[in-house]
Structure formats: structure tokens, C-alpha cells
Write a structure and sequence with these properties.
single chain, mainly beta, five-stranded antiparallel beta sheet, globular
């Protein structure tokens, strides 16, 4: 599977989890790193908003 997003574009979380107390679904993240596919074949990304950086699967984010 190839990456849908490139480094630098902006994205939003589809549905923030309970660990996202500091952010909301409206938070805009910058894609900072492309990561390889996991055992299911889905690629991942490192995204950052302010001082918060996290890893997400491609299905967890959408374009702004």
C-alpha cells in the first residue's frame, strides 16, 4: 500500500480517542514522517500539532 499523504500536508483526526484530552477533532496536524506498513498492510504516519506528536494509521486521518 502506498502513502496517501506526503510530508508537510495538513490532516485532521477522523475520530479522536479518549487519550486526546489536549486536542479535538478540529485540531490540524502536520504530517512529519511517513512510516512503513504494519502487519495488516496499512501504512502509518507521525503527525504533530503544537507540542503533541503521535503515530496514526492512514485510516485514522483525513485531509483538511
Amino acid at each position: 500500500m502506498s502513502h496517501k499523504f506526503k510530508v508537510r500536508p495538513l490532516a485532521r483526526l477522523n475520530q479522536p480517542g479518549s487519550s486526546d484530552a489536549q486536542t479535538t477533532s478540529a485540531a490540524v496536524y502536520e504530517v512529519v514522517r511517513l512510516m512503513p506498513a504494519d502487519q495488516t498492510g496499512e501504512v502509518s504516519y507521525r503527525i504533530k500539532a503544537g507540542s503533541i506528536e503521535r503515530a496514526v494509521r492512514e485510516s485514522e486521518i483525513r485531509s483538511t
